[in-house]
Design a protein that fits this description.
Layout (H helix, E strand, L loop, with lengths): L7 E3 L6 H11 L5 E2 L9 H4 L9 E4 L12 E6 L13 H17 L2 E4 L2 H11 L5 E3 L22 E5 L8 H11 L6 E5 L6 H10 L6 E3 L5 H10 L3 E3 L8 H8 L4 E4 L4 H5 L4 E3 L4 H13 L1 H15 L4 H15 L1
Parallel strand pairs: 1-2, 1-3, 3-4, 4-5, 5-6, 7-8, 8-9, 10-11, 11-12
């Protein structure tokens, strides 16, 4: 059922990745419009362009609030502040520009939505002060396959890593950890997602470590292919250096895939006691966890059960209800 709320537009719209999923998750329940900006979402042209008119609320889906506001109320969702952290791997100049954009969004918004307590805490630590805000966690989509998963698309058993292979995703740590686990298991390592500019570097590292034939890159995966990869994986490897939320944790759990993730930033918050938590820089610990989940059927079954229970706390209906409450209270 569609909820009644003020006229709202997501602007500037972002398509794909976690922010695109966020917009579409809310749009599936609430009646909201989306509008693209006049240029790149990070460009000065978009920054100095006025927000759209004719709406009660302009909902900016990340720290990209335009300079000119006019009469509409502004809600800003901040999922993470990775670009201004060292793990974001940006130049000093770009980090300074992103710092300005985040500061402006915090200053000029009528209400801030954080997707995790960790992101809220990081913003308070760095910017000292935040106006009215809510913490509204994200959600995974409903599973596309139930009970009997399609047979694996691969001929070997594997642990799975998904997401853009950026610096904060700890891709090097994943490969080095798997290299330590490789002599103790017949598993392969599969990276899901479209080809990345850095993938040649990761293939070279796998070759250097003697595991080239056991490290694979799937390329783009459709929704049903991604679901099948999750459902047939021995485990999800998600030992990121930093996450603002960590949606793959919930996605994997919803398909009965045990999760290995980091004990840092938002990941323990999202995992909810249903994953193995590791130090992302301790490759021996990650390797031991890979082997443990494969070999210990009792632990594996327990993690799967706990994962299903954890997923019950999250839904796009809950996200939409909490977001609608924000809209109604500032309009």
């Amino acid at each position: 059922m569609k909820m009644k709320h003020p006229r709202v537009v997501f602007y500037p719209a972002i398509h794909g990745d976690g922010i695109g999923t966020y917009i579409e998750g809310i749009r599936g329940i609430l009646k909201v419009d989306i509008l693209d900006g006049p240029g790149s979402i990070l460009s000065l042209k978009t920054f100095f362009c006025p927000v759209p008119t004719g709406y009660d609320i302009v909902h900016v889906p990340n720290f990209l609030v335009p300079f000119l506001k006019r009469k509409s109320k502004v809600v800003c969702t901040i999922q993470d502040i990775i670009p201004i952290l060292k793990c974001g791997n940006l130049s000093l100049l770009k980090r300074a520009y992103m710092f300005l954009r985040i500061w402006w969004s915090l200053y000029y918004s009528d209400h801030i939505i954080f997707t995790s307590e960790n992101t809220r805490n990081d913003v308070l630590r760095i910017f000292r002060k935040v106006g009215p805000y809510s913490i509204i966690p994200l959600s995974m989509d409903s599973p596309l396959i139930f009970n009997n998963a399609p047979e694996s698309l691969l001929t070997f058993s594997y642990c799975f890593s998904v997401g853009r292979r950026r610096n904060h995703k700890n891709t090097e740590g994943i490969i080095r950890s798997f290299a330590k686990a490789a002599p103790l298991t017949s598993l392969h390592l599969v990276f899901g997602g479209k080809e990345d500019i850095e993938d040649s570097r990761w293939r070279s590292l796998a070759d250097e470590l003697g595991i080239k034939d056991r490290v694979h890159f799937s390329g783009f995966l459709s929704s049903i292919e991604l679901a099948t990869y999750y459902a047939n994986a021995s485990s999800l490897l998600f030992p990121s250096l930093y996450e603002g939320f960590g949606l793959p944790i919930l996605e994997a759990m919803s398909y009965g895939c045990p999760v290995i993730t980091s004990k840092t930033s938002s990941m323990p918050e999202v995992a909810g006691g249903a994953a193995i938590l590791v130090d992302p820089l301790n490759y021996d610990e990650i390797a031991e966890s890979i082997v443990l989940i494969e070999k210990d059927s009792v632990l594996r079954a327990k993690l799967i059960s706990l994962g299903f229970e954890n997923c019950k706390k999250y839904s796009w209906e809950k996200v939409a209800e909490a977001t609608s409450f924000v809209y109604r209270n500032i309009s």
